[in-house]
Write a structure and sequence with these properties.
The complex is a heterotrimer of chains A (about 250), B (about 260) and C (about 260). Chain A is about 80% helix and about 0% strand. Chain A is mostly helical. Chain A has one domain (about 20-240): MetI-like fold (Orthogonal Bundle). Chain A is flat. The N and C termini of chain A lie far apart (about 45 Å). Chain C has one domain: P-loop containing nucleotide triphosphate hydrolases (Rossmann fold). Chain C has a 6-stranded mixed beta sheet with strand order 6-7-8-3-9-10, sandwiched between helices. Chain C has a 4-stranded antiparallel beta sheet with strand order 2-1-4-5, covered by helices on one side. In chain C, helix 3 crosses helix 4 (about 125-135), helix 3 runs parallel beside helix 5 and helix 4 (about 125-135) packs across helix 5. Classes of the chains: A mainly alpha (about 250), B mainly alpha (about 260), C alpha/beta (about 260).
Amino acid sequence: MPESWLRAFIAAGRTVGLNYAFLLDARERASWLRGIALTAELSVLTILCSLLVGIALAGLLTSGRPWLARPARAFVELMRNTPTLVQIYCAFFVLNMLLNQLVGGAQNNPLTAYAWAVIVLSTHYGAYHAEALRAGIEAVPRAMRESAISLGFSRRELLAHVELPLAFRFALPSLFNNFVDVVKSTTLASAIAVGEVTYASLMIWVERDNVLEMMILIFLVYGVLTLLVSRLGILLENRLRMPGYGH
Amino acid sequence: MATEQSMTVKAPWSAPSLPPTVLWFGVVALAWAALAHFQRETVAILWQWMPHLAAGLRMNVLISALAIAIGTLLGAIVGALELSHRRWVGAPARGYVQVFRNTPVLVLIFFTTYVFPFEIRLGSLYLAFPDWIKATLGLALPASAHVAEIFRGAILSITSAQWDASASLGFGRSQTLRWVILPQCVKRVLPPWMNLYAMITMSTTLASLVGVTELLESAKNASNTVNRTDFTVLIYLAVLTLFFLYCYPITRFTTRLERKYAFH
Amino acid sequence: MPPAHQPPERPPLVELRQVHLSFGSNHVLKGIDLNVRKGDAVSIIGPSGSGKSTILRCINGLLTPERGEVVVGDTPVHALRTEAERIALRKRIGFVFQQYNLFPHLTVLENIVLAPVRILGVARETAEREARELLAKVRLADKIDAYPGQLSGGQQQRVAIARALAMHPELVLFDEVTSALDPETVGEVLSVIRQLVEDGMTCLLVTHEMRFAEEVSHEIVFTDGGEIVERGTPRDIFHAPRSPRTHAFINGLRN
């Protein structure tokens, strides 16, 4: 962005009493922009990983084998009924500590705070996705199964061609609600000093005492990101709409 | 009995319903095994820290109760405004809901903590405005947005025929709301409202990030002070378990209510 | 008029011997004996809840009887133990449901080619060519790219028949295929079935359309309370029933 625009923006801010001078400091500006990039990256990565976790858990939940379904159910309930931040601390202060001792020192530990954030948020939201997918699979009419079986589908083919495509469509609205929550939850990574946008902004307002100004920017960043995700959801819903089915 | 061979009859895709007793038994057994694994000494240290942790937990309960109370009052008002036929009333209310639903709770807690003043001046009286109350407001804002959505959804879910029927009996709009619509809404509102309470309770841990000494912060203090591996493991597991014991019954009860009301 | 009966020495394609089945305490089938010769159309009639649909589900292995034998061609269905064996059986048997059960997320064409391509391994072009021919046969060539939700019940049912035929079955089972239809679309479905029977496809129908059953079937089977009460030519069953229960049922319908 040309410097002159920035100056105009900062001057405009000053007239209404908002201090955006940090944008002229190359170092601060870079770390703040990097924060936005990290938030976006963390969001995309966590959405993808959590979806994989969710599919795996939903598979276990609906497997019909109690020795698979029950542990999966217990895990899902544990994830959904304990605070995300506590889970992050349990991972970063407990598991990471144990891992450090196991590999002989933090310098040998391949897992960074960023990696732990992805892992914890993915398993946390994976549990929510699993519930959405399970409900989707259960919403597939039994008659649909019967007709696929009568055509000679094996269990695997039934799942791949009939149950999953339908379950995915039924679960789509819930899944995208969860994805919006994932985007919002990436702020929690700031608690273990991952430099995403909240953390980067915090670093700036600590120095410049411009909390309100940074808050407005943060609102905008999350507003845009969550809007993008929910638009994508609507787009996909329209793409996958089954004409004449439902409403 | 028919030998149920085929997939259709056996319906292996139906959800395995886990009786709560089994889960509870599992939790207790796990906790027992974990405790047995730790040395007596470690457990004794945990015992010493108990009053500190209990004070922390009281703070979580206090914040969550206050936040849901404020959020419900505020949300009921915003929800009613959202349904207003006047555009200049409805649109700002919808904007409020959008903004506070789509902003991370932690950001809102930072917002109320750092933007709101330390104290409020009432005439010559200075009222302290402690951090925990600011954090409570930070939780109450998104809560009110969610409550508004819950109320709005519930009111809209009641068919217009009921409004017409009430109108033909001579009820006014607010009378219809008070005597016909709201009583029916309670059933639909209760389960999501309780879910929201559980969510808020879990979010109270975020207050630790603005320096409020609640359970998680107390545990962190204890862990840093004692500085022993096995104690760190034990205390964080204890926090996890405590939250689970508090929230799981709520969500379990909510699911039961949902099932029950689904048939009415 | 159905074609004249062929010599009786033709071996049966489907044979049920003393088939018993219950769901819990509900004894649904109490010793069913039935056979269908290749090329025949057999209709099962009887009051609701007399186990008619259950008989069809025993034939394609959706249900397994507790006692008795079910044989399709050379395959002892009652003795099949693995899912793979049952799948092999089901590829040979078409099944048309009361509720059509088309896949709502696939177009008409995809509904028809899915199983031949994925299950039988037919080349896609071949499967699509055959699907077009079948759709022309059920007079729905113009609906090839429509989704099931966009079709009327009668149209969906005709697609379901085409989908079953695309597997080149030896036998087609029809489970009350017109019961869920609007009266004005029943005729179009029945005429497709009539055409199939005239082409020599072996058909076993459970139906409430008595006039149609009388006209199209080689044999009528009357079931009541989980038993076969009487079987015979349409003329015998509808005009000269031997059993008083058959008589009462037929007369009940007429009034």
